[in-house]
Amino acid sequence: MCKIIAVANQKGGVAKTTSVRNMAFSLGEFGKRVLAVDFDPQSNLTASFSEENMILKTTIADVMTKAMDEESLPNKEEYIYSHGKIDFMPSSIHLSVVEANLRMEMGSEKLLSNILEPLREEYDFILIDTNPSLGPLTINALSAADSVIIPINPEFYATMGLTDLTKTILKIRKRINPGIQFEGILMTMCDMQTNLHKEVCLEVVEAYGNGMKIFKVQIPRSIRVGEANRYGMSVIDFDKKSKAGLAYDEVAKELISYGN
Questions:
Q1: At residue 20, does pLDDT exceed 90?
Q2: 250 by DSSP, 3-state: which?
Q3: Span of 11-25, 59-73, 189-203 with lowest mean pLDDT
Q4: 77 forms bridges with which residues in the sheet?
Q5: CA distances (Å), 93 to each of 40, 44, 89, 96, 147, in order?
Q6: Of 102, 89, 25, 101, whose CA–CA distance to 58 is shortest?
Q7: Which residue of 187, 226, 243, 255 has the fewest CB atoms within a 10 Å radius of its CB?
């Protein structure tokens, strides 16, 4: 049974894209069929998956535009590409135009859901990389998702906006997508040798631990993550001994065991 997971936080710099990329790679290594959806106009996930000389003629922006215009969608082979064991749906800067148009479109919250629903039978996991906002694109992603992972970088102000995000998710559950669940909070870019990180992690556990799952594993801060991103590789493929890569493997195991 396929699970669609949105990775969301309106705060930037919390490793949303890095987490989607590495969770997708890890799930693929564990034999799962995975589709990664780049739903951010910045297209960083697309850049990491695109191979040299790969021509991306059709992106999610094109598909969303056709859906808004109530035109027939292209064949999935035209907008789903492969990168090793992972399939991905690319984005482009034109998705920002789509977002502007969504603000004027009635009943547009389910457009992404309508695109992804027919793909469920082909995948075990569909991971959506969202943009850092609570605008129409993120609303679409949350409306399409079965659950949401909230990555948090345990720095000062890390929890600011988390209340707004949880309220938004609860509103979407009530009004649009009654099935959406909190998959959990994922601590990223952690340096538990610093008092600040320890204190922020403790604050998150105290504030949300009773009502929301917090992933057991924390993703450590590592220069290897940035280096792997540069070469479009998973951290574990870039460095087999990377603590960050091994941590993402553990997150993938949690997702698989939780889904069984």
A1: yes
A2: helix
A3: 189-203
A4: none
A5: 8, 11, 14, 6, 26
A6: 89
A7: 226
